[in-house]
Specification:
The complex is a heterodimer of chains A (about 240) and B (about 220). Helices cover about 40% and strands about 15% of the residues of chain A. In chain A, the strands form 2 sheets. A 6-stranded mixed beta sheet of chain A has the order 4-5-6-1-7-8, with helices on both faces. In chain A, strands 2-3 form a two-stranded antiparallel sheet. In chain A, helix 3 crosses helix 4, helix 4 crosses helix 5 and helix 5 runs parallel beside helix 6. Chain B is an all-alpha fold. In chain B, about 80% of the residues lie in helices and about 0% in strands. In chain B, helix 5 crosses helix 7, helix 7 packs antiparallel against helix 9 and helix 8 packs antiparallel against helix 9. The chains are: A alpha/beta (about 240), B mainly alpha (about 220). The interface between A and B is medium-sized, with 35 and 27 residues.
Chain lengths: ~240, ~220
């Protein structure tokens, strides 16, 4: 449940969203590309306004144009999920070529070449022909990131991308995200990795109970003004992380 | 007490008729299964639509096809329809349609269960990659649902195989038809019926083994 969210993200900006579980961080992220369509409100992306498609319960075909418009929007926005959601019936390479061929309309050879470039960038070219079941969690998540990046998105959404990884695999994924941010990618990142947020974010947004409680550059969160933010940060025992 | 002498030689004497009966049963079951699979999928997709224009007829179809006893269905298609002058089907076709339509109700529910049990994250990931609904279904959902639907689909095939033995009542010369006519001549019903049952068991076991091999093949990605 979200209430009166108003958030602007500049091109090239990295915004990290933090907050307790159930605060609406993921919901907000999923509203941006309408994976979970908001019941009201709209998203303005690249100068165009989008809102949830009206429901045509009796004649779903009537909603087709609206849904196609959202499908096109999603093709400009990459998304990385907590549980990876790689396609288990496809190899790592095929996970990438599916979108390249069907969404971007590339031919087979061009799609494979692009997929291999992306897999090289994340250091997994040697796993190109492996099925996800034979990859570690960290490798799956990197494949999922590469799958999104292959489509040249203008915005990347990360929904707790490292939350279900074993601790020793987190660093590899964060490294990929860090270099992506350094390359100027626009990113909206829901994360529990406070240290990462403090280091990489241009702006941090703290959410609680479906509202944005406090937002600003990382420095602001050394001494947050809102009591709720202070309580959350100290509950993480985050003093060390913040000063690091 | 009446004594009964088993004369197993009867089976051997009538082996050609039994085998051609088996061939007929296999043909009826295979065609009915193809019909059930082909018809079940659109019914399942309609059943999952939000539109009552689609999901209500589909729900009714499933209820009728699963609910009406096969025997009654067979009579409708073969005797009733012809006697009212609606349409006339050969025994063979009536058998295939009765079984195939019944099977389509079961297959529709199997498809629906399989499609719905594919992880919701897969659909989200597909739409996040910019795939439309048709590609999402064809390239992401269906290949994963296929693996899930296989075991219950083989159950339907086996049920249809057994169901196919009922077509003898409209005069198709399947194994049980052979068993019955022969028993009239020889007064030894048990031998041929038992032989027919054993043959059916052998066929269903073969089908089960085949599924097992196919499942292992499809699961290779998980190893």
């Amino acid at each position: 449940m979200l209430h009166g969210i108003d958030l602007e993200v500049e091109r090239g900006e990295v915004v990290c969203i933090i907050g307790p579980s159930g605060s609406g961080k993921s919901t907000l992220l999923r509203c941006v590309n309408f994976v979970a369509p908001p019941s009201s409100g709209s998203v303005i992306f690249d100068g165009h306004e989008y809102s949830s498609p009206r429901e045509h319960r009796w004649l779903p075909l009537l909603g087709r144009d609206e849904r196609r418009r959202l499908t096109r929007l999603r093709s400009e926005i990459g998304m990385v999920f907590q549980h990876f959601n790689v396609f288990p019936h496809l190899t790592a390479e095929q996970n990438l070529t599916l979108g390249l061929r069907r969404t971007r309309g590339l031919g087979r050879a061009a799609a494979v070449a692009r997929a291999r470039t992306e897999l090289t960038n994340i250091g997994l070219l040697d796993k190109a022909d492996e099925y996800p079941a034979r990859l570690s969690g960290g490798q799956k998540q990197r494949v999922a990131i590469a799958r999104a990046l292959a489509l040249d998105p203008q915005l990347m959404l990360f929904d707790e991308a490292t939350s279900s990884l074993d601790p020793e695999l987190v660093a590899g994924v964060l490294d990929v995200m860090r270099s992506l941010a350094a390359d100027g990618m626009t990113m909206l990142v829901v994360t529990h990795e406070l240290r990462f947020a403090m280091e990489v974010a241009d702006r941090i947004v703290f959410m609680d109970h479906g509202r944005i409680v406090e937002a600003g550059p990382p420095e602001r969160f050394h001494e947050p003004t809102e009591p709720r933010t202070q309580a959350f940060l100290s509950s993480l025992g985050a003093g060390g992380a913040l000063s690091a | 007490m009446i004594s009964y002498d088993f004369r197993w030689g009867t089976i051997w004497d009538h082996r050609d008729e039994l085998l051609s009966g088996l061939w007929l049963t296999l043909q009826v079951a295979a065609l009915a299964f193809a019909l059930a699979c082909g018809l079940g999928l659109p019914v399942a997709l309609m059943r999952m639509s939000t539109s009552p224009l689609l999901n209500r007829p589909a729900a009714a179809w499933i209820a009728v096809m699963r609910g009406v006893p096969l025997l009654v269905f067979l009579y409708w298609l073969y005797f009733a329809a012809a006697s009212r002058g609606w349409f006339a089907l050969s025994e063979f076709r009536a058998g295939v349609f009765a079984l195939g339509l019944t099977g389509s109700g079961y297959m529709a529910e199997n498809y629906r269960g399989a499609i719905q049990s594919v992880d919701a994250g897969q659909r989200e990931a597909a739409s996040a990659v910019g795939l439309g609904p048709a590609t999402t279904f064809g390239s992401v959902i269906a290949p994963q649902a296929l693996r899930i639907v296989l075991p219950p689909a083989i159950n339907v095939l086996i049920a249809l195989l057994k169901g196919a033995t009922i077509v003898s009542i409209i005069g198709l010369a399947d194994m049980f038809y052979v068993a019955r006519t022969v028993s009239f001549d020889t007064f030894s019903p048990f031998e041929l019926y038992t032989a027919a049952a054993i043959i059916i068991i052998a066929v269903t076991l073969t089908a089960a083994t085949f599924t097992w091999v196919l499942e292992r093949h499809l699961a290779r990605a998980d190893q």
